[in-house]
Amino acid sequence: MRVAEGDPLVPDVLALLDEHLAEMRRTSPPESVHALDPYALAAEGVLFLAAREDDGTLLGVGALKTLSPAEGELKSMRTAASARGRGVASTVLTALLEAARSRGMSRVSLETGTEPLFDPAVRLYRRHGFTPCAPFADYTDDPHSRYLTLVL
């Protein structure tokens, strides 16, 4: 598996992101869906990474949005269903955290859901040292959201 900067607007990535957005919309009320659309993931200030097999098969994606020179936010972490259980999310997360450090960030935070669907993601983030925090950036208290942060 290799992780590198990717284009969120290529067909296989668009399909994975569409799946991600559809699942978020099925799981949470509209006002609690904070996933970025593919065009927002392609914007300046967002590092978008894709994990792929050597043959180019897409395994997963993740993004780091710059909030300030010192703080970033994880966005759109998603593993293809066929690649789950292979360490894709952990590999992408590690690459995003390394990128945050190399950019001089001292903190990375994230928002995720409170429904049981999100429990595996929360376990992943906790294994990497993330701890609960208050809402950050433009987020507010929301019973469908939980917030985690990691001091780098």
What does this molecule look like?
Helices cover 30% and strands 31% of the residues. With 152 residues, the chain is α+β, with helices and mostly antiparallel strands. It has one domain: Gcn5-related N-acetyltransferase (GNAT) (Aminopeptidase, 3-Layer(aba) Sandwich), CATH 3.40.630.30. The protein has a seven-stranded mixed sheet with strand order 1-2-3-4-5-7-6, sandwiched between helices. The two termini are 25 Å apart. The model has no long low-confidence stretch (mean pLDDT 93).
- CATH class, please? Alpha Beta
CATH topology: Aminopeptidase
CATH-defined architecture: 3-Layer(aba) Sandwich
**Number of DSSP E strands:** 7
Quick one: biggest sheet? 7 strands, mixed
Low-confidence stretches: none
